[in-house]
Structure formats: structure tokens, C-alpha cells
């Protein structure tokens, strides 16, 4: 699972292999050295500072204009290169570079399925476009594919 969400809800819901392209708001890191910061370090001052380099502690998310974490981006590309199907679900497909992933999946010969209530630029490249909310379309798709899937 590759997500642009920073809320950590995929992990909380039990997904075990999540690539968080834009980070996780529940994680903190040093803005200077990038070292992950433990929760207890947030109480070390206002604003909290890194005990190793005195850089400021910040949320572990990607802000507009920042590069994506290289390990997450590399892993996302590797997953796409080996996936059978790429579901592009519930995204406006406007924020780059994440928005380029469906196009990359197509260039790797993957089947791309777009699920979104609104049209996006990826409707043109997806082999299948399912219009609707993910919370409605995905259960119906799973039920159709595997009738034993709980409704
Ligand atoms: Zn630091």
C-alpha cells in the first residue's frame, strides 16, 4: 500500500506494509539532522530541540516544496514494477511526484484501475475507471471478485 495520507490510519487499521510517501504526522524528526525524535524529546523545551545537534524538532511529514523521503519513493517504484494491478484510489492526482505513480505503473505494463468520485487526469491512462467513493466501490469490487468476502 502506497499512501499520500499522513494520518497513520492505514497502519492503525491493520495494514502491515504501508509506504507513507508524505510521512506520518505521529512521527517527529530533527529538521537539521533528520534523526527521528522520541515523544519524550518533545518535552525538552519550547520549541523542542534535537539533543544531538540542537536542530528544531518538527512533524515527520513532507511539506509543500520538500522532496519525498528517498527510501519511500524508491520502495514505491519497486512495488509498482512488480505489482499485477495498481489501484489509484481516492486522490485528486494533483500533487507531484506522487501523481506520476499511475503513469509509471502503466509504463511498467501494469493494469491501472482508477477509483474516485470525480474525474482526474488519470482517467485517460487507467484501463478501468470506477466512479464512486472508495468506501463503497472497494467493498463492492471485493464482493464481486470473491463472493465469500464479507458484505
Ligand atoms: Zn538533530
TrEMBL record:
Annotated Deacetylase sirtuin-type domain ranges read: 1-151
InterPro entries with a match to the protein in the record: DHS-like_NAD/FAD-binding_dom (IPR029035), NAD-dep_sirtuin_deacylases (IPR050134), Sirtuin (IPR003000), Ssirtuin_cat_dom (IPR026590)
Keywords for this entry? Metal-binding, NAD, Transferase, Zinc
Q: What is the lineage of its organism?
A: Bacteria, Pseudomonadati, Pseudomonadota, Betaproteobacteria, Burkholderiales
Gene3D superfamilies cross-referenced by the UniProt entry: TPP-binding domain
Q: What is this protein called?
A: protein acetyllysine N-acetyltransferase
Active site location: 22 (proton acceptor)
What's its EC?
2.3.1.286
Q: Which organism is it from?
A: Noviherbaspirillum denitrificans
Q: Name one GO molecular function term.
A: metal ion binding
Top EC group? transferase
Amino acid at each position: 500500500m502506497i499512501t499520500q495520507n499522513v494520518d497513520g490510519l492505514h497502519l492503525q487499521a491493520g495494514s502491515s506494509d504501508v509506504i507513507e510517501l508524505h510521512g506520518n504526522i505521529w512521527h517527529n524528526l530533527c529538521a537539521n539532522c533528520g534523526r527521528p525524535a522520541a515523544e519524550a524529546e518533545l518535552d525538552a523545551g519550547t520549541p523542542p530541540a534535537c539533543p544531538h545537534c540542537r536542530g528544531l524538532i518538527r512533524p515527520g511529514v513532507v511539506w509543500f516544496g520538500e522532496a519525498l523521503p528517498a527510501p519511500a519513493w524508491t520502495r514505491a517504484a519497486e512495488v509498482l514494477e512488480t505489482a499485477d494491478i495498481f489501484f489509484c484510489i481516492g486522490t485528486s492526482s494533483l500533487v507531484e511526484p506522487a501523481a506520476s505513480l499511475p503513469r509509471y505503473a502503466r509504463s511498467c505494463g501494469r493494469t491501472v484501475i482508477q477509483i474516485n468520485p470525480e474525474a482526474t487526469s488519470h482517467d485517460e491512462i487507467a484501463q478501468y475507471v470506477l466512479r464512486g467513493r472508495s468506501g463503497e466501490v472497494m467493498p463492492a469490487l471485493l464482493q464481486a471478485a470473491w463472493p465469500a468476502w464479507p458484505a
